[in-house]
Automatic annotation (TrEMBL):
<dbReference type="InterPro" id="IPR029026">
    <property type="entry name" value="tRNA_m1G_MTases_N"/>
</dbReference>
<keyword id="KW-0963">Cytoplasm</keyword>
<dbReference type="InterPro" id="IPR029028">
    <property type="entry name" value="Alpha/beta_knot_MTases"/>
</dbReference>
<comment type="similarity">
    <text>Belongs to the RNA methyltransferase TrmD family.</text>
</comment>
<dbReference type="GO" id="GO:0002939">
    <property type="term" value="P:tRNA N1-guanine methylation"/>
</dbReference>
<dbReference type="InterPro" id="IPR023148">
    <property type="entry name" value="tRNA_m1G_MeTrfase_C_sf"/>
</dbReference>
<keyword id="KW-0949">S-adenosyl-L-methionine</keyword>
<feature type="binding site">
    <location>
        <position position="114"/>
    </location>
    <ligand>
        <name>S-adenosyl-L-methionine</name>
    </ligand>
</feature>
<protein>
    <recommendedName>
        <fullName>tRNA (guanine-N(1)-)-methyltransferase</fullName>
        <ecNumber>2.1.1.228</ecNumber>
    </recommendedName>
</protein>
<dbReference type="GO" id="GO:0052906">
    <property type="term" value="F:tRNA (guanine(37)-N1)-methyltransferase activity"/>
</dbReference>
<comment type="subunit">
    <text>Homodimer.</text>
</comment>
<dbReference type="GO" id="GO:0005829">
    <property type="term" value="C:cytosol"/>
</dbReference>
<feature type="domain" description="tRNA methyltransferase TRMD/TRM10-type">
    <location>
        <begin position="1"/>
        <end position="234"/>
    </location>
</feature>
<keyword id="KW-0489">Methyltransferase</keyword>
<feature type="binding site">
    <location>
        <begin position="138"/>
        <end position="143"/>
    </location>
    <ligand>
        <name>S-adenosyl-L-methionine</name>
    </ligand>
</feature>
<keyword id="KW-0819">tRNA processing</keyword>
<comment type="function">
    <text>Specifically methylates guanosine-37 in various tRNAs.</text>
</comment>
C-alpha cells in the first residue's frame, strides 16, 4: 500500500520510522511518503493560511498550496490508479475498525493534514471531482491539527495489511474485529510469573482446558464491556448471547 501525507509538520511523522510500521516500510509492504505543504508556496514567508471570509476567530488554510500539492502527489497520468483522499477533521464521519478495514484494502491513500480552522472548502470540492474523498474524525474532541489523527489512522490501517503483524491471528482477535467476540471488549491478560506481589494468575488459564479458557475469556470480556462501554452490549444480536452470557 502507498500512503502520502501532506502536512506543515513533516517531523510529526518521525514515529512512522519505528516498530511495526518502520519494519513494514523497510520490507516494502508499505510505501509512506511525507510532504511539506510549504514546498508548494511561492511567497517569501511560505504562507499557508489567511483570515476567514465572513469573519470569526482563527485562520483558514489557503486553497492554492493544497491544490498544487495534491496535483503533484497524485500525478497527471490518467491511466494509473487514483488515490483515496482522507481529510482528518473533527467534523468528519467516525473512524472505526470497520473503516480501517475498508481503507486497508485500498492501494493508495493520501492524508491532507489541516491545521487552524480547516482548509478552504473549494480545495475539497475540487478534489472530489477527481477522486474519492473521506472526511474522518478520530473521536469527539478537538485536536490542534490533523497530524496526530493521521498517525492514529495510519497505524490502525497498516497493522491490518497482510504480513505487517507478526502473528497473523492477532488482528482477528481484536476488540471490534468481526467474529464471535464482536461488540465485546477484551478482558484482562496475564503472563509469567504465576504469582506476583502475592497475586495469582487465574488458575483456569493454567488448566490446559481450552474450552474452559475460552468461556472464562468471554465472561471477562462481558464484564469489561459492562464496566467500560455498557452501550456496546445493546448492539449484540440476541442469538449471539447464550444463557451463561446472560448470567455474567
Ligand atoms: Cl481528525 N482532526 C482534528 N483536528 N481534531 C480531531 C480529529 C481530527 N478527530 C477528532 N478531533
Amino acid at each position: 500500500m502507498r500512503i502520502d501525507i501532506i502536512t506543515i509538520f513533516a517531523d510529526y511523522f518521525a514515529p512512522l520510522d519505528l516498530s511495526l510500521i518502520g519494519r513494514a516500510r523497510e520490507s516494502g509492504l508499505l510505501d509512506i511518503r511525507v510532504h511539506d505543504l510549504r514546498s508548494w508556496t511561492h511567497d517569501r514567508h511560505r504562507t499557508v493560511d489567511d483570515t476567514p471570509y465572513g469573519g470569526g476567530p482563527g485562520m483558514v488554510m489557503k486553497p492554492e498550496p493544497w491544490g498544487e500539492a495534491l496535483d503533484t502527489v497524485v500525478g497527471g497520468d490518467p491511466d494509473t490508479v487514483t488515490p483515496r483522499l482522507v481529510l482528518p477533521t473533527p467534523s468528519g464521519a467516525p473512524f472505526t475498525q470497520e473503516r480501517a478495514e475498508r481503507l486497508s484494502g485500498e492501494p493508495w491513500l493520501v492524508f491532507a493534514c489541516g491545521r487552524y480552522e480547516g482548509i478552504d472548502a473549494r480545495f475539497v470540492a475540487d478534489a472530489r471531482e477527481r477522486m474519492a474523498v473521506e472526511e474522518l474524525s478520530v473521536g469527539d474532541y478537538v485536536l490542534a491539527g490533523g497530524e496526530s489523527a493521521t498517525l492514529v489512522m495510519v497505524e490502525a490501517i497498516s497493522r491490518l495489511l497482510p504480513g505487517v503483524l507478526g502473528n497473523a491471528d492477532s488482528a482477528a482477535q481484536d476488540s471490534f474485529a468481526p467474529g464471535a467476540m464482536e461488540h465485546l471488549l477484551e478482558g484482562p491478560v496475564y503472563t509469567k510469573p504465576p504469582v506476583w506481589r502475592g497475586r495469582e494468575v487465574p488458575p483456569i488459564l493454567l488448566s490446559g482446558n481450552h474450552g474452559a479458557v475460552d468461556r472464562w475469556r468471554r465472561d471477562e470480556a462481558l464484564r469489561t464491556t459492562a464496566r467500560n462501554r455498557p452501550e456496546l452490549l445493546d448492539e449484540i444480536p440476541p442469538d449471539q448471547l447464550d444463557q451463561r452470557d446472560r448470567e455474567v
